[in-house]
Amino acid sequence: MAVSWASVAAPEPLGGVSVAVTAAGAAAVAFSAQPPDEVPARLATAPPADAQRTALVARQVGEYLAGRRRVFDFPVDWSLTSGPQRTVLQALHRAVGYGRTVTYGELAAGSGVYDAVPTGERWAAAREVGQIMGSNPVALIVPCHRVVASDGLGGYGGGYGGVEVKRWLLTLEGVLAPTLDWSGPA
């Protein structure tokens, strides 16, 4: 396997995070302490990251999950994205920082992808952005957990914990108040 993996333990409901790292940057995230057995074909032949870059990704993801980092300063490898998906995810990555949220509709409007959609049909653009968030290969790093519905949290495909993972990440970032049983960083 050509891709390198950075794995970090995390409290429940995450359990752990593994990041595929190529020479171009962080390329995929799996919500598991163990990297998946199979990688997407486009990553199988990608030049792997060197040990220094892989260690940097592991350290920064670990710092984020421990509540000590707000910004990742390693590059993202966008090779598993294309077209409108890439444009929307790059807009999210640039514009929605730590501790902030944006609605699906706001991200659709801010990405520029849906400018030609008539005003009365903007709901369809918001729904499409939701599908793009669900297909985000670099979740956590490209923070789809910060994209919420206009009337609540919305869904989340990140790991087996689903929306509970989203709730945990937004609590970590101070968007949501912690509950008495929150298992965040000490």
Automatic annotation (TrEMBL):
UniProt key word Cytoplasm: no
Domain Methylated-DNA-[protein]-cysteine S-methyltransferase DNA binding: 85-175
Entry keywords, A to Z: DNA damage, DNA repair, Methyltransferase, Transferase
InterPro entries: MethylDNA_cys_MeTrfase_AS, MethylDNA_cys_MeTrfase_DNA-bd, MethylDNA_cys_MeTrfase_DNAb, MGMT_N_sf, WH-like_DNA-bd_sf
Coiled-coil residue spans: none
Reaction(s) the record says it catalyses: a 6-O-methyl-2'-deoxyguanosine in DNA + L-cysteinyl-[protein] = S-methyl-L-cysteinyl-[protein] + a 2'-deoxyguanosine in DNA; a 4-O-methyl-thymidine in DNA + L-cysteinyl-[protein] = a thymidine in DNA + S-methyl-L-cysteinyl-[protein]
Primary enzyme class: transferase
Any one biological process term the GO annotation gives: DNA repair
Residues annotated as transmembrane: none
E.C. designation(s): 2.1.1.63
NCBIfam families cross-referenced by the UniProt entry: ogt (TIGR00589)
UniProt name for this protein: Methylated-DNA--[protein]-cysteine S-methyltransferase
The species this protein was found in: Peterkaempfera bronchialis
